[in-house]
Amino acid sequence: MNRYRLLPSDEAAAILELAGDIADRELAPLADDFEERGEFPREAVRVLGRAGLLGLPYDEADGGGGQPYEVYLQVLEVLAYRWLTVAEAVSVHTLACYPLAAFGSSAQRAEYLPGLLGGELLGGYCLTEPAGGSDAAALTTRAVRDGEDYVVNGTKAWITHAGVADFYQVFCRTGGPGPAGVSCVFADASTPGIVPARPERKMGLNASPTAQIAFDDARVPAGRLVGEEGEGFRIAMSALDAGRLGIAACAIGLAQAACDYATGYAKERQQFGTRIIDFQGVGFMLADMATQIEAARQLTLHAARLKDAGRPYGIVAAQAKLFATDMAMKVTTDAVQVLGGYGYVRDHPVERYMREAKVLQIVEGTNQIQRMVISRTMSR
Ligand SMILES: Cc1cc2nc3c(=O)[nH]c(=O)nc-3n(C[C@H](O)[C@H](O)[C@H](O)COP(=O)(O)OP(=O)(O)OC[C@H]3O[C@@H](n4cnc5c(N)ncnc54)[C@H](O)[C@@H]3O)c2cc1C
C-alpha cells in the first residue's frame, strides 16, 4: 500500500508505519466483534492518543503533532483500511478540536488544547439538529447569556460520540435568524443538562455511537465562547472544509480494503476451471476499482497540499469528498459483486464495507450539498 506514496519527510513515513502497526495489532483484531456488539472501542482510541495520533495536524505549541494535513489524511486512510469506526473517531475528534485550534484565544488554546490534543479526551461536534441538517444555518438551539454563563437549550441530532465524548463543540443561536446569529461554545460532556439519547440503530458503523443530545438549561461558562458571538457559522463551515478531507481519506482507506480483499479472493476462486481474476469481466472491474481509488487519493492529497500551503482549498475539498465517497460506494458494491454470493454474507468483510461506505456520502454535508457548493462557485 505504501509503494506509490510520496511523503514529505522521513518522520511522516515513520508516523504512517506506526499507525499501520497499531492498526494491525490493536484495531483490526477487534473490529468484527465490536461492530457486531455495537460497542465503541474507547480503549483502542486511547491507544492512538497515547501514540500521538489524535492531534496530528495541530501545532506542537498547542500539544498537537505539528504534521502537514496530507500526513494526517494518510494516517486516517491507514486506519480506515483496518476499521472505519476508529478512523471516523479520529476524524470527528480532529473536527471537534478545530474551532479552538483555529479560532480560540491564546488563553483558551493554552488552557484546553493540550488536554484535547494529547489523546486522553475525545470530542464531539454538535451542528445538526432534528429539523436542520443540510440547512445548518437554520439551527434553533439557543444560548442565552445569564451572568457568567450561557444557558443552552435545544436538541442536536446525529451526533457522533454522543454519550462517549468528553467535550462537545456546540453551535447555537445567540442572535437573530440566519448564519449571523450563530455562535460556537465549548462544553464539557459532564455539564448538568447535557443529556445524550439512546444511540440510533444504524445500517453500519455500529460501533460508533450516533445519537441526539438534549440541552436542557445547560450552563456553559461564557469564557467557553469560541471566537466572537455571531462568528459560529463561519467557524462551523471552516471546520467542515477541513473535516470533509478527513471523510474523503476514510473513504479511500475503506475502498482500498474492499479492493484488496476482492482481488485476493478473485485470485483464489476458480470457475470454469480458471481463476475468476483471469476473466476479463472481473479483471477489468478490479482495474477500474484500483484506478478510481488512486484518482480519489490524488485529488484528496492535492486539496490537503493546497491547505498546507495556505492556499484556498475549500472547493477542491468539496470535490474530493464528493468524488472519494461516491467512489467508495461504487468500489465496495463492486467488491461484493466480485465475491458473488459469498460477498453477500457476513463471513467476508465486504458486505460491511458496503454498508459503511453509504454513510460517507451523507455526513459532513451530503454529496448533493457538495455539488451545490461546487456549482455555486462555477455560476458566479
Ligand atoms: C452516522 C452519522 C453521523 C453523523 N455525525 C454527525 C456529527 O457528529 N455532528 C453533526 O453535526 N452531524 C452529524 N451527522 C449529520 C449529518 O451531517 C446530516 O445527516 C447531513 O448533513 C444531512 O442532514 P439531514 O440528515 O437532516 O438530511 P436533509 O438535510 O434533510 O437532506 C435530505 C435529502 O435532501 C437533500 N438536500 C437537502 N438540501 C438540498 C439542496 N439544497 N439541494 C439538493 N439536495 C438537498 C440531501 O442531500 C438529502 O439527500 C451525522 C449523520 C450520520 C448519518
Automatic annotation (TrEMBL):
It comes from the Bacteria. Its cofactor is FAD. The keyword Oxidoreductase applies. Residues 230-378 form the Acyl-CoA dehydrogenase/oxidase C-terminal domain. Keywords: FAD, Flavoprotein, Oxidoreductase. InterPro entries: Acyl-CoA_DH_CS, Acyl-CoA_Oxase/DH_mid-dom, Acyl-CoA_Oxase/DH_mid-dom_sf, AcylCo_DH-like_C, AcylCo_DH/oxidase_C, AcylCoA_DH/ox_N, AcylCoA_DH/ox_N_sf, AcylCoA_DH/oxidase_NM_dom_sf. Residues 9-120 form the Acyl-CoA dehydrogenase/oxidase N-terminal domain. The keyword Flavoprotein applies. One of its GO terms (molecular function) is acyl-CoA dehydrogenase activity. Belongs to the acyl-CoA dehydrogenase family. This is Acyl-CoA dehydrogenase. It comes from Phytomonospora endophytica.
